[in-house]
Amino acid sequence: MPSKWLFFFLLLFSTDAYAYIDPGSGSLLLYIITGVASALFYSIKYKFKDFTIAIKNLLNRQSDFEFSNDVVVHIEGPQYWNTFSSIIEHLNGTELNVICVSYGEMPPANLEKNVRFKIFRSQEESIFYMNKIEAKIVLSTTPQLDVYSLKKSSKVGVYAYVFHAPTDVAFYEKHALDHYDLVFCVGEYHKKSIRKLEAVRNSKTKDLLEGGCPYYDNYKQSLVSRNSNEKLTILYAPSWGARNSLKKFGIVILEQLLEGDFDIVLRPHPQSYVSEADFMDEVLSFCVSSPRIKIDKNINIAESIKESDLLLSDISGVIFDYAFLAGKPIVLFEMGIDVSGYEAEDLDEIWELNIRKKIALEIQECDVFNLNERIRTYIASYKQEDNLMVAQSEIFNFKNSGKIIAEKVLDLLN
Q1: 102 by DSSP, 3-state: which?
Q2: Would you place residue 11 in the very low, low, confident or very high pLDDT band (cuts 50, 70, 90)?
Q3: Both ends of the chain: CA-CA distance in Å?
Q4: What percent of the chain has pLDDT over 70?
Q5: Residue 70, φ and ψ in degrees, nearest 5
Q6: Backbone angles phi and psi of 240, in degrees to 5
Q7: Is the pLDDT at 360 greater than 70, yes or no?
Q8: How many CA atoms lie within 13 A of 147 on its CB side?
Q9: Radius of gyration (C-alpha) of the chain in whole angstroms
Q10: pLDDT tens digits, residue range 107-161?
Q11: pLDDT for 44
Q12: Which H helix or E strand runs over 70?
């Protein structure tokens, strides 16, 4: 009986304490202890069931690493497929063993046996896999390698960074590319900025190759202006946070555009729906009341570029797509730039601030109440070919980047 064993245990290890537990009480005490322990065990087991399954899956995958990869393409999420699609297209069918690592759903692709996908359920799982990967070369758009969660694997020969947009490194967080071995630059301005940062920090010298902007390859035809007699359509695409013109002026900008007899496509920054949720609820409530305002939440901005005649923005990166792919007029609010915490602190020149003056009309906060007049005057004098010429001069391998990067990867491996 359990009570006898308990009594024997207490006798064996007792000291001169004058205590006594009768067999019935001992049995009851043991049952209580056993019951609490069992309840606690099963509670933990079921409460953390999904967690333990996830950990088990990850540990099991340690033996699932591919040890014969020539190229690993780290696609940070489905939204970055456009960045790598043209590169993968030109690696497809070669003799290289290529694996694409990502999470979520990837678009369907016609791939040869040499290109495979490794798709995980979450970003955390894909990062865990990447941190143990073996490859001759890894292509990634993830900054802060070896600073944040993405760590360098000792079994990778070369880490190569691919830009997902033509923006400079100035407004990346500090040490964004310090630990990469190679960078496929979009333009000459990347070379200047990266070399300057290396000199300031006395960090290792990276190989800088002329790559370009790969997702521009998907737009072989420019997204030209509409040829119609309809009302002019303004694409308003503000940024988010402190430098957000929509947050600063509220719906005043939308009211002004409606008074100017413009149709509006409003494309808030995706982060605004997260970080400024209450404010965005107010904005969307106002938009519902006007049939002339359309809300764009699509991942791909191409349709909104086609539908519109002018872009109104502040510091959003969409200005480069609008200028270089469509060659359409752009009006930008001068919101002021805070460079603290960004690579810009260590740079003498910021390309993004200089290029704005070439491709757009910059206006001040006080212009919000004569916004319509400034827009119409600018449209009347605008020459589309000017921005398209800037694109050709600023971007390496314009609309042919994927092919060039794939060829350079082949050269590196040979």
Answers
A1: strand
A2: very low
A3: 76
A4: 82
A5: -85, -50
A6: -140, 165
A7: yes
A8: 12
A9: 29
A10: 878 889 899 999 999 999 999 999 999 999 999 999 999 999 999 999 999 999 9
A11: 52
A12: none
How far apart (Å, rounded) are the C-alpha atoms in residues 123 and 175?
Answer: 22
Report angle CA 164, 170, 175 to the nearest 5 degrees. 85
Q: What is the rounded distance in angstroms from the CA atom of residue 46 to the CA atom of residue 390?
A: 60
In the structure encoding, which two tokens stand for residue 99, read together? 């694996």
Q: How would you list the strands of the sheet with 182-185, edge to edge? A: 115-120, 98-103, 71-74, 135-140, 156-162, 182-185, 207-210
Tell me what percent of the chain is helix, strand and coil, each rounded to the nearest 5: 50, 15, 40
Q: Do β-strands 293-295 and 233-236 pair in parallel, antiparallel, or remain unpaired?
A: unpaired
Separation between Cα atoms, residue 261 and residue 255, nearest integer Å = 10
Half-sphere exposure of 151 (CA within 13 A, CB side): 9
Amino acid at 326: A
Q: How far is residue 75's CA from residue 68's CA, in Å, rounded to a whole number?
A: 19
Give the list of residues 6+ apart from residue 36 with CB closer than 8 angstroms, or none: none
Rounded CA separation 179/175 (Å): 8
* pTM given for the model: 0.78
Task: Provide the 3-class DSSP secondary structure of residue 125.
Answer: helix
